[in-house]
Amino acid sequence: MKFRGDFLVRQRTHFMEILSEATRDLDTSLSHHLYFPKMVGPKNHRENARSLRPPKNQILIKTRLIAPAREYGKLLAFHSDGKLDTVLPLLYDLGFWVVHPAERAANDIFQLKAAWAGKLAFVGNIFTTLLACGSENEIEKKVREYCLRLGPGGGYALGSSTSIMERVATENFVAMTQAVHRYGRYGALGQS
Q: Can you give the CATH number for the domain in which 135 is found?
């Protein structure tokens, strides 16, 4: 039993260190409109954000991260490479506006957008394997589909499902960027 108690104390201490570091980061990033607090979120498609669940953690998040960010006029963004469906209600209740990157392996971006339209905005979901191995035509086709299906009503910014890796050819990244400019204009979504 003592071991479990020691573990919980270490976990709480680690969580407080993350909160302190995130609050310091807020002061150094005032020129940006979005603030990504350093929080412990799901790290892969099989994991959910367990660390956000305990009520004491939620109070700390609200007082140490969210209140200062709002004071500086920032929109709160949450970064996670994991499964988002069970954590989105909590993020919304905590005051987050943007979720990034909505990784494709863990999330159905079309279902998330439909379920959270007007409440949360999503960023990403273009599969990095497509960017690394697909043709420019395949990338353009996928970007056009995303612009047509996710663009209406706002709440979506096109991007990759995870970080752009070294194996993504420059030509493919440029193809994605050009396709967004071609098909992602409001008033003409999907039209070139």
A: 3.20.20.210
